[in-house]
Amino acid sequence: MPSKPNAKGGTEKDKDLQPDIEVGADQFMTTDQGVKINDDQNSLKAGDRGPTLLEDFILREKITHFDHERIPERVVHARGTAAHGYFQVYESMAKYTKAKFLQDSAAKTPVFVRFSTVAGFRGSTDLARDVRGFAVKFYTEEGNFDLVGNNIPVFFIQDAIKFPDLIHAVKPEPHNEIPQAASAHDTFWDFISLMPESMHMIMWVMSDRAIPRSLRMMEGFGVHTFRFVNEKDEATFIKFHWKPLLGVHSVAWDEALKISGKDPDFHRRDLYEAIENGAFPEWELGVQIVPEKDEHKFEFDLLDPTKIIPEELVPVQRIGKMTLNRNPDNFFAETEQVAFHPGHIVPGIDFTNDPLLQGRLFSYLDTQLSRLGSPNFHEIPINRPVVPVHNNQRDGHMRQTINKGVASYHPNSIGGGCPFQAKMAEGGFSSYGERIDAKKIRERSSSFFDHFSQATLFFNSQSEPEKNHIIDALRFELGKVVREEIRERMLGLLSKIDKILAEKVAAGLGLKVPAKPIEPMNHSMPADADPKKYQPKVIKSSIERSEALSMANTIKNTIKSRQIAMLAADGSDDKAIDKMKKALEAEGATTMIIAPRLGYLKTASGKEMKIDQSFLTSSSVFFDAVYVPGGASATLLQEPDAIHFVTEAYRHCKAIAADNDGVELLEASAANSKMEDNDNLAQDGLILNSPPEAFIKAIAQHRVWEREKLHKVPA
Ligand code: HDE
């Protein structure tokens, strides 16, 4: 049976990890050989001022281990953070798949999830404009299943052979290793401008999806079309989705830039703290199911990873829920050493011929060999399945398993034929018997040649503010490109997506959209190919807008785990603070008192109140909303940092509440522009002298992006 929570509420995987957990509390310090150490302060010397002796095995062991502490970072997705949890299916999916972890709604399957950015190095900022990795390892009773996805449902390229080119283009440029964790440079846009197939993905990456508010507030996607296979060996096509129960939310670009400086660990910290505070992040697993007979029914190819299946065509069925409820104990042992692989599947799930997926099936095992250094990386505690492993794989660096017996081959008679193969009825994996009758050919199917229709669909599906953010992002990114011909090529491609989009970007760059995109448009073609045959196909999407593509339509009914700043000073109204705090915390939000200095403040009723952060140690960009109680406006108005705090929160379109003379702080800030001529302030997220409920409603809206129409960036 899959794991049921043990007495302590842990999963099978938690139990499996127990023997490897080391706690030094109340223990003697020892060498790696278990010898108790008497002096860890001084090396062994010939006389107290003499040379250190080579004989000092304690010194040598310690320094040698230190010298080898680093392993290569992931070539992509180096920056990441992870958490433990479990997955539970809502009802049996037996009709579609025999995968055991998708049968029993009472069973909890342990998971380990790693989120990441793609381009930056291990120490880079969390808030880079980038795709986020969303990799889930399910420790099922039939072995590990890895769903190695992203927070964007499509990819830049259609064929794995282009992946090294894409990554070389986006990584810092090779001559000077600049810029870090950024796509805003020539090599990236040079490549992209020659790859029209990337246009759909570019729309997503230039949208606010690429700067999430929190890892807990982003969707996940399996990207490729996979297969479900049931007991009768019938297959259906599947797209995997993760839908966050907190909704899909992002920060503003200006915020992202500031957070990158003030707290580059913002997402990592947010996930860690949410879990420590018991605000466990949750996602529903969704699937789009397409019967085999419908494979060719769509105006795009199901095998093309630059396409989504619009939810209007095939709805997403929510089939289960994942909860992350435990932080790793050790970053290196777990988060760094976890090794995902899209090729880790279990009976009931299978691949399709998506050429990007097919290439990935090679890459992940291969990369672990150099990153983790041995074919035995599956024995590392975080990677090993919760079911036993028996096979004839032997030896290699760092082998942990002590295999008994002399027969390490199959068939054998000496070992009684063991370990033996499992029949399908016994859970043995058997690949889906897809019929293939083909000529070997190095080509791309012409059904992959529509590069623009879904880019247009995405752009058209965005709200006005979202469209403006895409335009701004493109102006910024292309503005950082030095070579003008690259900018012009990009404008040509953008005009194929949307003329107005291209014109607005061009205006920001001081250029004109070229009358005709530079031909041939597709450089991703074989040397001998006829360029005419490789021109992108122009297809008009049967769907003009898709609600699911806009974050404006996401869940906006909760403030769970949101961070609210309360600006206070000596004299602040403690009753108002307590009332607001209680109401916000009852809805699951977290509050912090921010004041001109650290320590304690004396409230209106003479009480001592602990200050959590000062204006120096904190910033409005770390919060979702701001509250200014009355009582201390005279002090706060003397603090330029307090006024800036409110101005910035206002310009970043956040909800702001104030009571009594607290309103004066808003009047001294940029919010004043709205207050002078607006009688519906609540709609604008400004909640003055109102009950907490109104503030709670405003925070749940996440942002009032319309405010940007007047003023975009903080003073
Ligand atoms: Fe990956 N990718 N990838 N990728 N990928 C890696 O494997 C690769 C792609 C994704 O948190 C590497 O262990 C190729 C798509 C995630 O540890 C490497 C291609 C999607 C992670 C690799 C792709 C992903 C990786 C680097 C094109 C979304 C981080 C380190 C054919 C569906 C997993 C490693 C973690 C990591 C190769 C494209 C997701 C080199 C060749 C598409 C979330 O093997």
Summarize the structure.
This protein is of the alpha/beta class and 715 residues long. Helices cover 26% and strands 15% of the residues. It folds into 4 domains: 12-67, Cytochrome C Oxidase, Chain J (Irregular); 80-379, Beta Barrel (Catalase HpII,  Chain A, domain 1), CATH 2.40.180; 451-552, Hemocyanin, N-terminal domain (Up-down Bundle); 556-709, 3-Layer(aba) Sandwich (Rossmann fold).
Give an account of the 3D structure.
- It is a single chain.
- Helices cover 26% and strands 15% of the residues.
- Mean pLDDT is 95; it is low at 1-7.
- A hairpin with a 5-residue loop joins β6 (226-229) and β7.
- The N and C termini lie far apart (59 Å).
- It has 4 domains: 12-67, Cytochrome C Oxidase, Chain J (Irregular); 80-379, Catalase core domain (Catalase HpII,  Chain A, domain 1); 451-552, Hemocyanin, N-terminal domain, CATH 1.20.1370; 556-709, 3-Layer(aba) Sandwich (Rossmann fold).
- The chain has 19 helices and 18 strands.
- The protein is globular.
- It has 715 residues and is α/β, with parallel strands linked by helices.
- α3 (163-170) packs antiparallel against α4 and α4 packs across α12.
- The strands form 3 sheets. Strands 1, 2, 3, 4, 5, 6, 7, 8, 9 and 10 form a 10-stranded antiparallel β-sheet that branches.
- The protein binds CIS-heme D hydroxychlorin gamma-spirolactone 17R, 18S.
- CIS-heme D hydroxychlorin gamma-spirolactone 17R, 18S binds next to β2, β3, β4 and α9.
